[in-house]
Design a protein that fits this description.
Radius of gyration: 20 Å
Helix content: under 10%
Largest sheet: 3 strands, antiparallel
């Protein structure tokens, strides 16, 4: 079966706004993902993978790692190794599923003891524990995907948000469990509420059930069409 290639063009109904264009592409992607097909091409048996050595094996391109659903690009401040994507020097994950962040950012802490160290000296309460971060006046003061909230604190994003993915299986371990394979090509948060809107800073809850998405999805603010 021949490989099916898709292309998306912004329609007039979407408008000139890039965010509305983002919304339109997501809708198109949801429709195209429903069309199952065989991706094997005898003329390109490795697909998008690189051919290795004697042409008997296929390997992922540089900067990506192999998963059962295909090659996945490593995220920001990550490097590809045999065992998967790992944080580059000077960065670490505070816990599994989180993005690589500067050393000390997001590390567990005691809000009462405030045992964080410079430059992330603020311990933000999170349930019974807390995490190290810093105060801010805008999100420009935040690192590692954090964003400045109404309390002037750099808030930690949902675990897995923005992680590169090719299928829902790549997003299963985090809080962002929806794989957007069309526009962002990364894990996004689904199952949000509207009142109050509990999406992360810079996102809004959008009802996409008419397009086959079973739960409301957090998408960039301004991109949800009425």
């Amino acid at each position: 079966m021949e490989r099916v290639k898709w292309s998306a063009r912004r329609s007039r109904a979407i408008g000139k706004s890039p965010l509305r264009g983002w919304f339109g592409l997501v809708v198109l992607g949801l429709a195209t993902q429903a069309a199952a097909g065989c991706l094997y091409d005898p003329d390109e048996p490795c697909g998008d993978l690189d051919v290795y050595g004697d042409n008997l094996r296929c390997v992922c391109p540089a900067g990506t790692v192999y998963t059962p659903t295909g090659c996945v690009a490593c995220g920001a401040h990550e490097v590809a190794e045999a065992g998967g994507c790992v944080c580059e020097d000077g960065y670490e994950r505070a816990s599994a599923g989180e993005a690589c962040a500067p050393l000390g950012l997001g590390q567990p802490c005691d809000p009462d003891a405030n045992d964080c160290v410079d430059p992330f000296t603020h311990c933000e309460a999170d349930g019974d524990t807390g995490y190290c971060t810093n105060e801010c006046t805008s999100s420009d003061d935040c690192k590692g995907g954090y964003a400045c909230n109404d309390s002037s604190v750099c808030q930690r994003p949902p675990a897995g948000l923005g992680k590169p993915c090719t299928s829902p299986a790549d997003c299963a371990e985090g809080e962002a469990t929806f794989c957007d394979t069309v526009v962002a090509k990364s894990c996004q948060v689904q199952g949000c509420t509207f009142d109050p809107d509990d999406c992360f800073i810079g996102y809004e809850c959008c009802d996409l059930t008419m397009f086959g998405v079973p739960q409301p999805l957090c998408i960039p603010e301004g991109a949800c069409m009425p």
